[in-house]
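Cross-posting from the chemistry board since nobody answered there.

I work mostly on the small-molecule side, so proteins are not my area. We synthesized zinc ion and want a rough idea of how it might sit in this target. Sequence and SMILES are below. Is it possible to get a predicted 3D structure of the two together?
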Amino acid sequence: MQQLKIVTSTNSYPVFVGGGAIHLLYEFIQKEADNYTSVMVITDETVAKLHLDSFQKSAGLSRIIVKIVPSGEQAKTFPVYYDCLSAALENKLDRKSLIISFGGGAVGDLAGFVAATYMRGIRFIQVPTTILAHDSAVGGKVAVNHPLGKNMIGAFHQPEAVIYDLDYLKTLPEREVRSGFAEVIKHSLISDETFYDRLREQIYSLDAITETEMLDFLTTGISIKGSFVAKDEKEKGIRAFLNFGHTLGHAIEAEAGYGKVTHGEAVACGMLFALGLSKELLGLEFHLEGFQLWLKKLGYKTSIPEGLDRERLIEKMKQDKKSVGGTIRYVLLEKIGKPVLMEIDEKTLTAYLKKFEEEVGHDD
Ligand SMILES: NC(=O)c1ccc[n+]([C@@H]2O[C@H](COP(=O)([O-])OP(=O)(O)OC[C@H]3O[C@@H](n4cnc5c(N)ncnc54)[C@H](O)[C@@H]3O)[C@@H](O)[C@H]2O)c1
Ligand SMILES: O=C(O)C(=O)C[C@@H](O)[C@H](O)[C@H](O)COP(=O)(O)O
Ligand SMILES: [Zn+2]
């Protein structure tokens, strides 16, 4: 079991990572038991079916309210958000109640946003169940989507604790393993060339990642993320580097229709694009084709999904949260581990998008 600490300007909290970590939830809640008047767990249909019984037993939780929401991006919608708030009100949650998010990044973002806004903010704990959630469960970004843009309605609301039991990962489908691993790759590219080299050398197939390697990759990713969040909790500056690959990635997710392409698949394509753009604009020395081949070997589709309109993607990228006054700001790399935030004009971005589409072509 590993314990990390996330320190932000508003609070600090532990992240427990390892097989069997769920047992720590009871202990953690008991310490605060006099303080919590009630506990509401928000989970999704898939996770509930697979793990809710064992979660309740292992966590030692008996008198809890459980709210089950649809799986995947469908959870991050206004009707589901509203429904969770109604459940909280109907069950008389008060300002001393606790929300537990039990699921992947979608459930975590939703439950965190419910916690951030219910009675202007109550406490919550993240119990992530996906690889991707090594990223989403820490850092306090919580949100739901809007048809016009990903995570557009949200808040910064840090959890009280993150209890990451890696045993849950055993039931993840291959596609979700791949999705989550994209954020591991991102963490390496933006901060640590040796970590990136290690991934390139060690990982030739996502099935072959051992438990020890997974623990190492996830804790390394969490500490990289934590270091950015500690310095810039509300994304006034360097936290934007965690958005590497996301400007195009989010545009793809929104244009394809939320949930059609997984977050990690979209980010993988977005990272390839941002690396190519970094070569063009900053002279990044990087073997792009080698990286693309590696991604393909791991099962990623590296091209923009067919049928997405270039102009609409550009419009979405212009509306990205990093844009200021309509100016697109893009996370690029000067070198591996050295990100920069750079203003890019629409003409340059459109020209490179066209080139990228031509060069990368289609996967199938
Ligand atoms: N807040 C942040 O900082 C942050 C960071 C990265 C991503 N995100 C968001 O996270 C979301 C993606 O997260 P995700 O990939 O975890 O998505 P998810 O929560 O949709 O989970 C993916 C799928 O796996 C299923 N699942 C979850 N745990 C499982 C398990 N243990 N076994 C079997 N199936 C399981 C879910 O039901 C779902 O169908 C996106 O909405 C993205 O925008 C947020
Ligand atoms: O924590 C961050 O900051 C990130 O950018 C992490 C991203 O992986 C994550 O997808 C995040 O939700 C994106 O944030 P957004 O502000 O672009 O919606
Ligand atoms: Zn992400």
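Reply from a structural biologist on the board:
Welcome over. Reading the output above for you: The domain at 174-360 is CATH 1.20.1090.10 (Dehydroquinate synthase-like, alpha domain). The chain has 13 helices and eleven strands. Happy to explain the token format if needed.
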